[in-house]
Design the sequence.
């Protein structure tokens, strides 16, 4: 059946993708990219992939969008000079050839997929009882493919170390980002006081229902990080100095707990990240609770960027 | 009774869609940022409000209906605040932009 809504979505997404590539300045491209992320969210919702839709809205549209806006505004000064440079004819042909080749390979891969696609959905449905969680996505992420999730969390820590390593020496151990000076009685301060209590509840709710319904730590942590950033942007609280012991401990707490439980699995259940059946649900909960503050802090700190000022004495 | 409620849903959601359409046309056609913001907030507040009011009889229960209303209130809160922030920025930068 050809559904006008789906056709409309596809046309909009393809059109927006072309616009992102053709847009002259980085800022317009970034704005279009955020809209593109929101449209992708609708596509995932149409495909009944509510978990993926939530993640796409939070990470793909929200977080990545905010990171790219920051990058675009930093590039603004040099943008005109860069776009005035014309690449040589050979480079243009090389780029065109490479892009076409990548597109062709992707198209061939998609067309060569067996029909019906190979699926592990039945295996997940048959074994989900042993994990104690009700949401198959959470079961896959934290039990069947826990290794992938562990590596994801570690990658995020490395990403933050990468951002921090751009800190100039004189600001090392300082606070990330610029000092905010919003009007303490202004609109921003008002919303930074009203919204966080609601956001905390919504974020924790999405985190908690992740065991049985769409939701989970990544989506919840993004909302919590957004609330934290809102408070910092309104100047109601300052970003933490990056050499605080408690901060650094919280940043590695999630991966450490994950690895600890994984090693425990070697001793108790015979394999790394294997859970004894009767304790599977509590262990998954421990990992989720340990990862939550880590993810919230890392997502917030990634957006705040490298320290740009020393600690005020 | 249920036919009446369905009629109400159709009427209210259609009215909401009209506000979204008007807001979008305004966003595209109005000459400067302040009037464009004005058009946009109409779509947010009234359009979404009518859609939510229309959907209330179709909600699965009291809890779902409350969630719909909370979503509307949150969108109004964020929409109004962001519109204020953008408008103040325009007012502050106005002389340079013109």
Sequence:
């Amino acid at each position: 059946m050809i559904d006008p809504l789906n056709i409309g979505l596809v046309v909009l997404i393809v059109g927006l993708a072309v616009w992102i590539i053709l847009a002259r300045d980085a800022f317009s491209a970034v704005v279009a990219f955020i809209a593109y992320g929101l449209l992708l969210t609708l596509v995932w919702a149409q495909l009944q992939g509510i978990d993926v839709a939530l993640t796409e809205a939070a990470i793909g549209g929200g977080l990545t969008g905010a990171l790219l806006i920051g990058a675009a505004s930093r590039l603004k000064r040099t943008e005109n000079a860069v776009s005035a440079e014309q690449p040589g004819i050979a480079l243009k042909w090389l780029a065109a050839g490479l892009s076409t080749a990548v597109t062709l390979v992707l198209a061939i891969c998609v067309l060569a997929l067996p029909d019906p696609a190979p699926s592990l959905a039945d295996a997940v449905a048959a074994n989900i009882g042993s994990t104690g969680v009700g949401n198959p996505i959470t079961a896959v992420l934290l039990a069947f493919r826990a290794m992938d999730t562990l590596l994801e969390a570690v990658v995020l820590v490395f990403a933050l170390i990468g951002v921090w390593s751009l800190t100039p020496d004189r600001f090392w151990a300082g606070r990330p980002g610029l000092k905010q000076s919003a009007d303490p009685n202004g609109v921003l301060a008002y919303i930074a006081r009203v919204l966080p209590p609601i956001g905390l509840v919504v974020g924790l709710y999405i985190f908690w229902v992740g065991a049985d319904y769409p939701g989970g730590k990544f989506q919840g942590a993004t909302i919590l990080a957004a609330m934290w950033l809102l408070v910092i942007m309104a100047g109601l609280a300052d970003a933490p100095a990056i050499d605080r012991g408690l901060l650094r401990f919280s940043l590695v707490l999630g991966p450490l707990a994950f690895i600890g439980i994984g090693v425990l699995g070697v001793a108790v259940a015979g394999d790394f990240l294997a859970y004894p059946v009767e304790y599977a649900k509590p262990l998954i909960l421990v990992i989720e609770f340990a990862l939550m503050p880590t993810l919230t802090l890392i997502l917030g700190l990634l957006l705040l960027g490298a320290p740009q000022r020393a600690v005020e004495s | 009774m249920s036919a009446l409620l369905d009629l109400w849903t159709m009427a209210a959601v259609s009215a909401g869609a009209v506000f979204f359409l008007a807001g979008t046309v305004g966003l595209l056609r109005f000459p400067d940022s302040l009037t464009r913001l004005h058009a946009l907030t109409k779509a947010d507040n009234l359009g979404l409000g009518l859609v939510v009011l229309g959907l209330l009889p179709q909600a699965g229960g009291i809890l779902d209906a409350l969630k719909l209303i909370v979503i509307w209130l949150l969108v109004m809160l964020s929409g109004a605040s962001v519109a204020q922030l953008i408008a103040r920025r325009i007012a502050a930068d106005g002389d340079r932009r013109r």
Notes: Chain B is about 90% helix and 0% strand. The interface with chain A takes residues 74, 77-78, 81, 84-85, 88 of chain B (CB under 8 Å).
